Amino acid sequence: xxSLFAKLPSAALAGAVLAAGIALPLSASAQxxxxxxxxxxxxVRIRGTVVYNDTKQLIVKDRGxxxxxxxxxxxxxxxxxxxxxxxxxxxxSFVGTAAMPQPNGTQKALEVLVFPEAARGTGExxxxxxxxxxxxxxxxxxxxxxAAPSSARGGQQLKLSYKGGEKTVIVPPNVxxxxxxxxxxxxxxxxxxxxxxxxxxNGTPTAMRVIAGRHGxxxxx
Length: 221
Fold this sequence. Notes:
Helix content: under 10%
Order of helices and strands: HHHEEEEEEEEEEEEE
Strand content: 35-45%
Radius of gyration: 17 Å
Structural class: mainly beta
C-alpha cells in the first residue's frame, strides 16, 4: 500500500485534504461513491509519473520513487492541465494558487491555476497544501491586480478575496500559470506526469480523479 495511505491518520487528515487535487468536480458516479464512503477515508494526492494504465488500474511512480498500484473508480475523470499566460489572469478570475507564506504576510505563488468559468467557486478558501513543506492553497476571486514589487519584477500582485478573508499573492514571472480542460485516457501513457486524487475504498487504494500534462508537462499544483 502507498505510504500515504499507510502512515497518515485518516481522521485527522480529513480536514486538511478537503480540497484535494484543487477540489475539481467529480463525475456523478464518483460523487455517489464519495458520498457513500466512510468519512475517515480522506482523499490523498499522489504526484508522479504513469507507469501503466488500463481500464482497471493505474500504476504511478510517485515523486519519492515509490510505485503505487491504484484501482480505477468507475468513469474515472481525467483532466488535461496546460500552460497559459500570466496576462490571462484577469480581475474577476477565479484562481487556485499554491504559495509559500512570507514574513510580511503576503503569499509567494508557486503556481496559479485559472479555473474555467464552469468551475468558479470550487474549493473556495485558504488552507494548508502539500506541494512543499508549509505551503498553502488559496482558491479565490481576483479582486484586484497590479505589477509585482521589485523583488518579483515582471510578475503580478494579486489581491484574492474568498468567503471569510483575503490574501495578497505575489506571482513571480517564472511561475507556471495553467488552466485545465476535459481529457481522456490517451493522456495516461507511460511517462506522463500526473496528479492523482486517490482514496482507500474497501481496503484498496483507488484513483478518483487524474490531472495530467501533455508531452511531459508536469501538473504544477
